[in-house]
Design goal:
Low-confidence stretches: none
Bound molecules: zinc ion
Distance between the termini: 56 Å
Shape: globular
Mean pLDDT: 95
Helix content: 10-25%
CATH class of the domain at 7-115 and 182-222: Alpha Beta
Radius of gyration: 19 Å
Strand content: 25-35%
Largest sheet: 9 strands, mixed
Order of helices and strands: EHHHEHEHEHEEEEEH
CATH architecture of the domain at 7-115 and 182-222: 3-Layer(aba) Sandwich
Number of strands: 9
CATH superfamily of the domain at 7-115 and 182-222: Class I glutamine amidotransferase (GATase) domain
């Protein structure tokens, strides 16, 4: 099946320059296996950009034609220019989908859209993670088994300081005893946001089939709807003329 969506994968691209382990696991970039899997799953128009690209990969023209933005960032959140964060926020409010991965929980754009600190507990122990599907009827659960395991990953534990999600699709359990809301859905304006936890840079998580499936499902779920056009008011309230003649009280 082919999906005519324009998918933009924002891959920060900094670990890949400095860290040999990351270079060995992801020679073409941390998100490269995701781009490949999205293309193979029918999202032929998937492109990858990085922080070092012109306009940090987030030009007005690029975002204007993006249906779903996938975001992976970690060490350079602060370098993302605020004007581009404003631009991405506006596009989400207009209906662009946003899929935020792993350490993107602390990205400026995610914190902006959540309005909370988005902090959590973490431990880089390389033990296994078990993800349970807790909303099996949700589109993001399509094709998944009741649970799946990632052999080695970083631990993220509760409390995860996010607003109560509109849906929680996956919950992780970690060998150290923690749990975490690993697949969370939100609505902001006309846009849909999916946060998905797995993906630490020193483990080959993004080659795993189930992980790739969740991300492809997340892209499909977050894709813009075909409802009436959204008028971005820039925060202004809109005066409305009455639709029918009536006697003002
Ligand atoms: Zn990590």
């Amino acid at each position: 099946m082919q999906f005519p969506l324009q998918v933009l994968v924002w891959n920060e691209g900094q670990h890949e320059k400095r860290n040999k382990t990351v270079q060995q696991i992801y020679p073409h970039g941390i998100c490269a296996p995701l781009v490949e899997s999205l293309r193979a799953q029918g999202y032929a128009h998937t492109q990858m950009v990085t922080l070092d690209d012109p306009d940090q990969g987030l030009s007005e023209a690029t975002l204007a034609q993006t249906d779903v933005l996938v975001w992976w960032g970690h060490v350079a959140h602060d370098q993302v220019r605020d004007e581009f964060v404003d631009r991405v926020q506006r596009r989400v409010l207009e209906g662009m989908g946003l899929v935020v991965l792993h350490s993107g929980h602390h990205a400026k754009i995610f914190r902006r859209l959540m309005g909370t600190t988005c902090s959590l507990r973490w431990r880089e122990d390389g033990l296994h993670e078990r993800l349970w599907v807790v909303d099996p009827g949700h589109p993001i659960a399509d094709g998944l088994p009741p649970y799946f395991e990632i052999p080695q990953d970083e631990m993220y534990g509760e409390h995860f300081d996010i607003p109560t999600p509109d849906a929680v699709v996956l919950i992780s359990w970690f060998a150290g005893g923690e749990v975490f809301r690993s697949g969370c859905c939100f609505h902001r304006g006309r846009g849909k946001i999916f946060y998905f936890r797995p993906g630490h840079e020193t483990f080959p998580v993004y080659y795993q089939k189930e992980v790739q499936q969740v991300i492809a499902n997340g892209v499909r779920w977050a894709a813009p709807g075909k409802g009436p056009a959204f008028v971005y008011s820039g925060g202004e309230t809109l005066h409305a003329a009455a639709l029918e003649p009536y006697q003002a009280g």
